[in-house]
Specification:
With about 200 residues, the chain is mostly helical. The chain has 9 helices and no strands.
Length: about 200
């Protein structure tokens, strides 16, 4: 059995990458079929060989963006755990790190799109809810035992802090807000014996 992707699969991947970047950068309204296909190096006419509708593209791009950002976040957090950090500290420092502030087009789609989701319908809304629940679950698994009920609140603070820091900009003010939010979360939820707040 061949594991080499087909030409159609490679094209589909390029379309998803272009759509995911556009989605993070400009929200659902900023995902134009013609622009995405052009950015993927394909003709507009080939779109319907891959997706039934623009909404189907946006939903799949949202899922793709969530998985790719989750993998990057997981890799950063695992590296920190490998250096002795708790899972919670590693997650907080990775999600609220300066690198995530700057990486809008590769970053968390929940932070990029949370305010847009209530205005979406059908498959796009469901894809967004799936990503939100996935992030809450990741936070829940990282929290010290006994604090799992706080997962939604911690997730909201992480997402909101990243959104506000991005609004302030990738500058000293935005980075300071992230640092303070990291400190607040770690002082509240990190076991006392593990606290070494930076």
């Amino acid at each position: 059995m061949s594991t080499t992707p087909s030409r159609k699969e490679l094209s589909h991947q390029r379309i998803l990458e272009a759509a995911a970047a556009a989605l993070r950068r400009a929200g659902p309204a900023g995902v134009g079929v013609a622009e995405v296909m052009r950015e993927a190096g394909l003709t507009h006419g080939g779109f319907y060989a891959h997706f039934a509708s623009r909404e189907a593209l946006i939903a799949e791009a949202l899922i793709y963006a969530g998985h790719s950002s989750s993998e990057r976040l997981g890799a950063r957090a695992e590296a920190k755990v490998g250096k002795g950090q708790s899972g919670f500290r590693a997650l907080v420092e990775s999600y609220l790190g300066d690198g995530h502030l700057a990486a809008v087009e590769q970053g968390c789609p929940v932070a990029a799109l949370a305010s847009e989701l209530p205005r979406q319908s059908g498959v796009v809304h469901e894809a967004g809810l799936s990503r939100i629940h996935g992030l809450i679950d990741r936070v829940r698994r990282s929290l010290p035992e006994g604090d799992a009920d706080a997962a939604g609140v911690v997730t909201a603070q992480m997402v909101g802090s990243l959104q506000l820091a991005r609004a302030l900009g990738d500058n000293a003010e935005g980075r300071a807000l992230l640092k303070r939010s990291r400190q607040e979360l770690l002082s509240r939820y990190e076991p006392q014996e593990a606290q070494h707040i930076r």
